[in-house]
Specification:
Number of helices: 16
Largest sheet: 5 strands, mixed
Number of domains: 2
Number of strands: 8
CATH superfamily of the largest domain: Adenoviral Proteinase, Chain A
CATH topology of the largest domain: Adenoviral Proteinase, Chain
Radius of gyration: 27 Å
Length: 428
């Protein structure tokens, strides 16, 4: 559908040419397609479904991951429902956007449907239920809300079922137990050594992720997200620092300006003084990936984007694309300033992610004392050289907390859940 929408005018011309030059059934069908594409109803509904399915497809791809656990899936669906609800409350913006595009395309302007006469064989009671619209937008408002409400209702009916919640509750108890700060699910491998995994906030670390810290390997998006999530547990300054992980940053980079608020408004992003974005050079919509990490920081007080790149110039284009889109969101009147900030340069091809995290640490440490991020100086190279071991130590500490309490939790769960499993016929 997105391909149809992005090539709408070209398809109109194609169908019109076929209908004029082909007198067969193919020409008649092409004429029918061309007539439909001239109707505002068709264009409105196509635009709506492309916008809606864009969010649904992103979550659908994420739900196919083999490493996904129920709690993570539940959060994805909740976030999707929140996004659709937010879209539902922004009909006026969508209406204005679609209507303005009609002026540039061969699409009829919206108008009230012709009122049809009710056949005499129907009585007055039925006649009174015939739907009429007094304003041209009333019809499309009803269609818009019905589409959104149906989508939300379907998602909740599929993922908020009694069976889903029954299975999810034990897992959620393990992942969010108050015995340790939202970290859990650490387990032993068959050889007695620690293997996957550690769950912390919205990030699930596997053994393969942790092994990237032990050698000359490029840090993946999971490790970047994990480390950014650790700041949430130790930084309590209200509305000062906001950390946006690779997944959301990627969505912001590839999304049109009109959809940026869907990601940032639920985070109340405009209320924060500093916003940290983990940026990579990938152009793929569905995944993060890429070959190089850098850090983009927005300073609200200076209305300036600072780009910290450990391989100077490598991510400049991607950083400017992201900053241009966000600038319209944070500063709609005047374009925000973009600065390539001085950054310690990496001495190998794989430590860009480490530099990103060290830059975050450095900015957090000195931002209170410095009036501008222009004056923060460079990261100490010794800190970069020891960062991998620091992260491994943090993972070890969190894992030990889990290990001390895991057996106690399992015993409690066994006593609590055995009657429920017996009741549902899971055990006999």
């Amino acid at each position: 559908m997105s391909s149809v929408l992005s090539n709408y005018t070209e398809l109109q011309e194609l169908f019109l040419n076929i209908s004029r030059n082909d007198n067969s059934d193919t020409g008649a069908k092409a004429n029918g397609f061309w007539i439909n594409m001239q109707r505002y109803d068709f264009f409105f509904m196509l635009s709506l479904l492309v916008k809606l399915f864009g969010h649904i497809d992103t979550v659908n791809i994420a739900l196919q991951r083999k490493s996904l656990h129920l709690e993570e899936a539940n959060k994805m669906i909740s976030t999707l429902v929140t996004s659709i609800t937010f879209m539902r409350n922004n009909l006026e913006s969508f209406w204005g956007e679609v209507t303005s595009k009609c002026q540039d395309m061969d699409v009829d302007f919206p108008k009230l449907p012709r009122r049809r006469k009710v056949p005499k064989k129907y009585d007055d009671s039925i006649n009174s239920t015939v739907e009429t619209f007094t304003e041209v937008c009333d019809k499309y408002r009803r269609l818009y809300y019905k589409t959104m409400d149906t989508s939300i209702s379907f998602l909740e009916s599929q993922f908020k079922t009694q069976s889903f919640m029954f299975v999810n509750q034990p897992e959620q108890f393990l992942l969010e137990a108050d015995y340790f700060p939202r970290s859990a699910a650490f387990k032993l491998g068959s050889n007695g050594q620690r293997s996957s995994c550690l769950s912390f906030h919205d990030t699930l670390l596997h053994r393969s992720d942790i092994e990237l810290l032990t050698g000359p390997y490029w840090l993946n998006d999971t490790l970047i997200s994990f480390h950014l999530n650790t700041y949430k547990g130790v930084i309590h300054e209200s509305k000062r620092l906001l950390f946006i992980g690779p997944e959301v940053t990627q969505c912001l980079k590839v999304s049109p300006f009109e959809e940026i608020n869907v990601f940032l408004d639920p985070l109340n992003a405009k209320e924060y003084k500093y916003i940290f974005l983990a940026l990579n050079d990938s152009d793929i919509v569905e995944t993060t990936g890429g070959t190089h990490w850098s850090l983009l920081v927005y300073c609200k007080l200076e209305d300036t984007f600072f780009h910290f790149d450990s391989s100077s110039g490598f991510n400049n284009h991607h950083a400017k694309v992201l900053a241009d889109g966000l600038s319209k969101y944070f500063s709609p009147i005047a374009k925000s300033v973009f600065i390539e900030a001085p950054s310690l340069q990496q001495t190998n091809s794989y430590d860009c992610g480490v530099h990103l995290l060290c830059n975050v640490d450095h900015i957090i440490g000195v931002s209170k004392q410095c009036k501008s991020l222009r004056d923060i100086g460079l990261v100490n190279r010794m800190i970069v050289n020891t960062k991998r071991m620091e992260i491994l130590g943090l993972i070890e500490t969190l894992s030990e907390r889990v290990n001390k309490n895991l057996m106690y939790i399992v015993c409690i769960l066994s006593d609590l859940l055995y009657p429920l499993y017996t009741m549902h016929g899971i055990v006999h």
